[in-house]
């Protein structure tokens, strides 16, 4: 049974803007939903702790790296409440579109890491996430869900506007724009990119250790990262695991040829004004 009181996203925007002042040093991980957010959080936390796995097991991901805009049902603390109890340097997670990111992030030149994933795999992953996340509305039939995605009628709005917004501002705002597919293809290369962007320096051995600790297999079994710590009334892992597959190209197991053609035609229309190098296979 789904919770009657769902996580309140849109009503928290004004509260976020008025309640917190961001000062250096901060690292902000901005993503569209289901793009490798938790993966990137673990990479960043391990880099900050020089690959110390024990230090990164100190608490669940959601407590180590608060989710900025979430106001969850009590007794779960809000993202801002968690942030208020932490001392810098702080790492923050958000799914906010760029136009809703608090101005303090930019004024204080916080490090902003954005992670994007190709639309088809993102859609599949979010569909299964909505099935098991009982704080979200029932996703409904797969075919209807595709249309909701194309119309931007899911939490945090349009995928198209989200990825384009950060892409178009990446140079002006000094945003590190990452792709899920690149992380899968060569995780060591991407961990090194994140390290350099954060002005950190760790040894090659530590890089290798971080790559191993943040592999899908290891993270899927990590109780501090796989969200099994949440009660079944929030995340029902018997419906679908939070860390389900972590693959590139799983969309081919869900889209019919007709659905794929329809989606591709709509995608071409909505993305005609940008050239973001997404890949649907590697």
TrEMBL record:
The record's subcellular location field reads: Cytoplasm
Q: Where is the Sulfotransferase domain?
A: 32-274
Question: What are the UniProt keywords, alphabetically?
Answer: Catecholamine metabolism, Cytoplasm, Transferase
Q: Name one GO molecular function term.
A: sulfotransferase activity
Query: Would you tell me the Gene Ontology cellular component terms?
Result: cytoplasm
SUPFAM superfamilies according to UniProt: P-loop containing nucleoside triphosphate hydrolases (SSF52540)
What InterPro entries does the record tag this protein with? P-loop_NTPase (IPR027417), Sulfotransferase_dom (IPR000863)
Pfam families linked: Sulfotransfer_1
GO BP term, pick one: xenobiotic metabolic process
Quote the EC number: 2.8.2.-
The family line of this record is:
Belongs to the sulfotransferase 1 family.
Name of this protein: Sulfotransferase
């Amino acid at each position: 049974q789904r919770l009657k009181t769902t996580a309140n996203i849109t009503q928290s925007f004004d509260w976020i803007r008025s309640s917190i002042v961001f000062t250096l040093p901060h690292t902000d991980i901005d993503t569209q939903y289901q793009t490798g957010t938790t993966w990137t959080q673990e990479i960043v936390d391990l880099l900050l702790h020089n690959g110390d796995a024990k230090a990164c097991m100190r608490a669940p991901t959601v407590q180590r790296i608060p989710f900025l805009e979430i106001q969850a049902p009590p007794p779960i603390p809000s993202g801002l409440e968690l942030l208020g109890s932490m001392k810098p340097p702080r790492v923050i997670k958000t799914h906010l579109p760029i136009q809703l990111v608090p101005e303090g992030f930019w004024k204080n030149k916080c490090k902003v890491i954005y992670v994007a994933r190709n639309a088809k795999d993102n859609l599949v992953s979010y569909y299964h996430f909505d099935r098991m996340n009982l704080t979200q509305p029932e996703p409904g039939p797969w075919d209807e869900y595709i249309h909701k995605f194309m119309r931007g009628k899911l939490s945090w709005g349009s995928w198209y506007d989200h990825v384009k917004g950060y892409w178009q501002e990446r140079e002006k705002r000094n945003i590190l724009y990452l792709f899920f597919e690149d992380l899968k293809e060569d995780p060591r290369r991407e961990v090194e990119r994140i390290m350099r962007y954060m002005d950190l320096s760790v040894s090659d051995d530590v890089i290798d250790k971080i790559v191993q600790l943040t592999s899908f297999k290891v993270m899927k079994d990590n109780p501090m990262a796989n969200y099994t710590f949440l009660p079944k009334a929030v995340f029902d892992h018997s419906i679908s695991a939070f860390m389900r597959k972590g693959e590139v190209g799983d969309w081919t197991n869900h889209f019919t040829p007709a659905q794929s053609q329809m989606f591709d035609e709509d995608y071409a229309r909505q993305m005609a004004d940008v050239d973001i190098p997404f890949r649907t296979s590697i």
